[in-house]
Structure formats: C-alpha cells, structure tokens
Amino acid sequence: MTFDYSGATMPNDFISFIILAALAVVVLWLVFFVVRKLFGVALLIALAVGAWMVWNDPDHLRQWADPVMNFFDRYV
C-alpha cells in the first residue's frame, strides 16, 4: 500500500495559518513546561543524593561543613 502525496499542499488561507500557529504555541508551551518540571525534579534528586552522601561520609561532611559555616558566620 503506497500513498500518493504529490497533490498534498499546505493550506495557504489565513485561518489555517492562525490555527497552525496557535497549535505550535501550545505544543511549545507544553514541551517547555514539562522540561522545566523534569529539570526541577532532577535538580532536587541530585541535591538529595549529594546531601545523603555528605551526611553519611564524615570526611565529606568535614570538607563541606567548614566553608558553609564560614559563609554563614561571615554574612548571616
């Protein structure tokens, strides 16, 4: 089964372009919304894993606790 697309053309009336543009805007908005949410979730997971690693390893805890405490002592 083959399809003949030789007669298929993109509609060139104004209403079709408005509908296509509106659909493109909606699709882009949904894509960016989903990507932003996934990036936020990935960032939270990375922070949680990093905090768990620092909390469970005393060497990492000492390595990162001193700069954080110095920052808070100086600015807060």
Low-pLDDT segments, ≥5 res: none
User: What radius of gyration results from the CA coordinates?
Assistant: 26 Å
What is the SS-derived class?
Answer: mainly alpha
Main sheet: strands, sense, barrel? none
For the termini, the CA-CA separation is 73 Å
> What's the count of strands?
0
Pattern of helices and strands: HH
| Percent of residues in beta strands | under 5%
How many H/I helices?
2
Mean pLDDT: 86
Percent range for helical residues? over 70%
How would the global form be characterised? elongated
Report on this structure.
There is one protein chain. The chain is mainly α and 76 residues long. It is built from two helices and no strands. The longest helix is centred in the middle third of the chain and has 43 residues, at 14-56. The mean pLDDT is 86.
Question: What is the structure about, briefly put?
Answer:
With 76 residues, the chain is mainly α. The protein contains two helices and no strands.
Spell out the blueprint of helices and strands.
Blueprint: H1 14-56, H2 58-75
Helix pairs in contact: 1-2
